[in-house]
Design goal:
Number of strands: 0
Order of helices and strands: HHHHH
Distance between the termini: 39 Å
Radius of gyration: 16 Å
Structural class: mainly alpha
Largest sheet: none
Helix content: 40-55%
Strand content: under 5%
Length: about 90
């Protein structure tokens, strides 16, 4: 994975098992010590709340999808900083 990221395109799939599907394979890879992002791999295994979430999402794809959708709605409701130009739709 690191070699792919460092190659000419600089791109790599988050997981090689299901690269064209948005699913919970990323969490299974973290548990297998094959995480793409070093920061995520480093955080997993420290015994904190994030470990519980990684383990839950690795086995429960529906929980991952549900929580991801909630997080995206919350992020979409965060207003831009004052003075930042915004696009009016």
């Amino acid at each position: 994975m690191q070699q792919m990221c460092q190659g000419p395109s600089g791109k790599a799939s988050f997981d090689v098992q299901t690269p064209m599907r948005f699913d919970n394979a990323y969490y299974r890879n973290l548990i297998a010590r094959r995480g793409l992002l070093t920061s995520d791999q480093t955080l997993y295994g420290g015994g904190g709340l994030q470990d519980n979430l990684v383990e839950m999402y690795s086995t429960d794809g529906e929980a991952f999808a549900r929580d991801f959708a909630k997080a995206m709605v919350k992020m979409g409701n965060v207003p831009p900083p004052k003075g930042m130009p915004v696009e009016n739709v």
